[in-house]
Inverse folding.
């Protein structure tokens, strides 16, 4: 098929990523050329491939099947094939064949390359914020962190549990924190493809320092009863977390939580 063109390039953002530019009409006559191109890539070392399909005008079912086979070959070499910049009609073809459930599809090359840093280099994304020690700010904070988890493709179950954890800790930070003007709650999030780590700290209310220390001792006990109102919210956090720690001092309290991602 003379109207089809394929070109291999190196990603400017990351030299370890191969960019394949596909242009024209991808019909039955293009299969051999696609196969030869990907066979060359599979024989090399840069087996994480982004297929830029912004120039594709037509996509046949046979071509989709060939791309699936190419992806399988890359996966066997611990690589990946992702697609990006699909025209609406091409994306509709992919969806009609349920191939959108197999390929990860991104809006542009840069977004697709970011997957490499995330999946293959285990990049850690960090978010830090502070908010006034008032309960009215907590819903926005917990929803933000839930959306971060969802955007990073954590399951809805994980995202809900992460939101619950943040809600409980933030509520406690406000409840037991100082209400003096200028005193804020600090939230720190570090997320990668395997886990999310959350640290929430406050400036303690001097009158509640001993209460917080007693709650910390209580939570360190292997036997926690949910019938006991003392520390019930933090007991729930401990149950939902894979790692849980409270650092108390006369100055403030910091709760550290690690939640491992479910596959």
């Amino acid at each position: 098929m003379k109207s089809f063109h394929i070109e291999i390039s190196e990603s400017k953002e990351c030299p370890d990523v191969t960019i394949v530019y596909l242009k024209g009409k991808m019909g039955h006559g293009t299969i051999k050329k696609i196969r030869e191109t990907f066979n060359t890539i599979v024989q090399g070392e840069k087996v994480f491939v982004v297929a830029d399909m912004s120039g594709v005008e037509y996509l046949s079912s046979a071509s989709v099947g060939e791309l699936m086979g190419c992806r399988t070959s890359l996966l066997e070499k611990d690589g990946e094939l992702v697609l990006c910049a699909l025209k609406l009609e091409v994306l509709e073809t992919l969806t009609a064949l349920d191939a959108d459930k197999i390929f990860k599809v991104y809006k542009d090359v840069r977004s697709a390359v970011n997957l490499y840093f995330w999946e293959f280099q285990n990049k850690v994304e960090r978010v830090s914020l502070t908010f006034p020690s008032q309960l009215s700010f907590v819903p926005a904070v917990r929803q933000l962190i839930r959306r971060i988890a969802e955007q990073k493709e954590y399951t809805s179950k994980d995202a809900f549990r992460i939101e619950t954890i943040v809600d409980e800790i933030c509520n406690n930070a406000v409840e037991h924190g100082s209400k003096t003007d200028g005193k804020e709650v600090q939230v720190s999030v570090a997320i990668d493809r395997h886990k999310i780590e959350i640290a929430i700290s406050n400036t303690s209310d001097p009158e509640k320092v001993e209460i917080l220390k007693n709650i910390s001792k209580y939570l360190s006990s292997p036997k926690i009863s949910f019938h006991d109102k003392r520390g019930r919210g933090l007991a729930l956090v401990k149950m939902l977390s894979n790692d849980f720690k409270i650092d108390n001092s006369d100055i403030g309290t910091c709760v550290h939580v690690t939640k491992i991602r479910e596959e």
Summary: The helical segments are 31-42, 61-76, 88-96, 109-119, 138-151, 156-176, 209-219, 232-240. The longest helix spans residues 156-176.
